[in-house]
Design goal:
By secondary structure, the chain is α+β, with helices and mostly antiparallel strands. It has one helix and four strands; from the N terminus they run αββββ.
Length: about 60
């Protein structure tokens, strides 16, 4: 567990989550994420749906 649990939970948990949300907002607001051209992605349906070999993305700055 990244932030621990129970009585010994990390004191910076809420601050770290807030920083991650702010960073994600800045990336989404300033860049367009597009998949790289190539073969279609093969999906792994279980236990969590995700591309088998990862998802290669290109970041393009929005002017």
């Amino acid at each position: 567990m990244p932030f621990g649990g129970g009585a010994h939970m990390c004191l910076g948990l809420h601050f770290a989550m807030m920083v991650m949300k702010v960073l994600l907002h800045h990336v989404v607001a300033r860049y367009r994420l597009e998949p790289l051209p190539g073969p279609t992605h093969d999906w792994q349906p279980w236990p969590i749906a995700r591309p088998r070999d990862g998802l290669r993305l290109e970041m393009r700055r929005i002017c």
